[in-house]
Specification:
Structural class: mainly alpha
Number of helices: 3
Strand content: 5-15%
Distance between the termini: 20 Å
Strand order of the largest sheet: 1-2
Largest sheet: 2 strands, parallel
Shape: globular
Helix content: 40-55%
Number of strands: 2
């Protein structure tokens, strides 16, 4: 969902760098969501999309941490 929204914004504003601003819970969902690409392809899928749409994550009260490769 986050990547679909970012792609729509990018289409509407092609000269603007689109980034994702997420709370801690949104970041966790982004990195653990089932994108339908298979477990073995998910990391590559995420890397490609996160290169296209950089992200910032704001901490909340939880203790969740993003994987080292996603930081």
């Amino acid at each position: 969902m986050f990547f679909e929204i970012a792609a729509e914004v990018q289409q509407a504003l092609p000269d603007v760098q689109v980034s994702l601003l997420l709370g801690e819970d949104g970041a966790e969902r982004l990195l653990t969501w089932d994108y339908g690409v298979g477990e073995e392809s998910r990391d590559q899928y995420l890397r490609e999309h996160l290169e296209r749409y950089p992200w910032l994550s704001a901490p909340r009260s939880g203790q969740w941490r993003e994987p080292d490769w996603a930081a």
